[in-house]
Design a protein that fits this description.
Blueprint (H helix, E strand, L loop, with lengths): L1 H28 L10 H7 L1 H21 L2 H5 L4 H14 L5 H23 L4 H25 L1 H4 E2 L8 E2 L6 H21 L2 H16 L4 H19 L5 H16 L2 H4 L1 H10 L8 H12 L16 H4 L20 H9 L1 H21 L4 H20 L12 H18 L8
Helix pairs in contact: 1-3, 1-6, 1-7, 3-6, 5-18, 6-20, 7-9, 7-10, 9-10, 9-11, 9-19, 11-12, 11-19, 12-19, 15-17, 17-18, 18-19, 18-20, 19-20
Amino acid sequence: MIGSTSSSVRIQHQAATLSAALLLTMALVSFRPYLPAENVSAARGGDIVNQLGFGSLGALALLSLLCLANPATIARLPSFGWTLLIGLVIFSTSHTGDPSTALRTFAFTGIAVFVVATSLVLPRSADDFSTVLCTVAFIVLGLSYAGLVLFPDLAKHYELADQIGLWRGLFSHKNIAGPVMAMFTFAGLYLMRRGWWWSGLIIGAAALVFLLNTGSKTTVALVPLTVFAVIAPSALGMRLLAPILALAILGIITLVTIGTVFFEPVRDFVLAHFEDPTYTGRVAIWEYGVERLALHPWQGFGFDNFWGTSNALDVPLPFDMEWDVRNVVHGHNGYLDIAMTMGIPALIVFLAVCIVTPMVDYLRAPMLRENVLLADLFLKTLLFTSVNGLLESFFFRRADPVWLIFVFAVLGLRLVARTRIPTRTA
């Protein structure tokens, strides 16, 4: 009888691990892999395959949560901050041109976040979590590399007709592939630190090679900086320094990017010392966005209700603007886009809930080996995606893989600060 009970528990834990791997894999792969970038907006917004796919994935996540997750672990995930943030997002859907459509868009975002959250609470141990990471990484990397051979026109990004294609794999753009591959690089390092040498080495090396071929110099440079900022303080016995370094890096890069719009001395410094002081035309977009934000600073223009809508398209541009920025798909700065669509108060709440609180959670994590290693993984992922949000806009963007790995890091730090992580399932 005891043996039968033990076997039943073991099967339940294995099912939980399998479900977590499936949920996270499908969240990153999506139901439209290798989709050309020009078709992404339409497919994500009203594509029936994605609607049915993510709806079904949400149902599977709910079923797994009810049947396979540890109730005590689930109870540690909700917070007042997240409740307030979700409330502000829902409120922002009420003052758009089409509130019902905005609410449906947010619901799609919510399902994707729920799926990622479920994939975090299902694994019962560090070994289970490592199995999930290995499974997801090998599938995503395998499909991405296979795409380079089988679908080169879809798995590569061509900015010029005669250019050697930059790798994007199964993702819609190289700027999405880069951060995902960075996360897998961190995952490979995490696995090696745990003693899963071969799995970690293969995943880390394959992800790094792919990252190098996405063509993003900023992304490539940020990976070693992120690893150093998190690992070095721990190695020196100064763990408190890691989140301080992370916030300092985020602050400095904020200053030299969108800070150039607000501070003339910073702009002069960037003009004098940076190879591309416009950040590939982003400064013009930020200037336009900040000017428009001044019209609705407290509640913004409404959720998903600026770029690509009449709020941007129907406004005449100054004659001296370098180029027409009204037709861009987003503001190329996630923080600015939150302020523009939901208001400055919502941005402040977002920063408190998704940047500052996870840094505190990192310090609150028990000084146990598995908790420390997982906290390091999540902090690296959080720092990398937070900085990436200064040059791209993915926050609350439905099932954008970069948004999902950002949420993965934020919620992961919350769990690791409140849960003792055993090495293996009993």
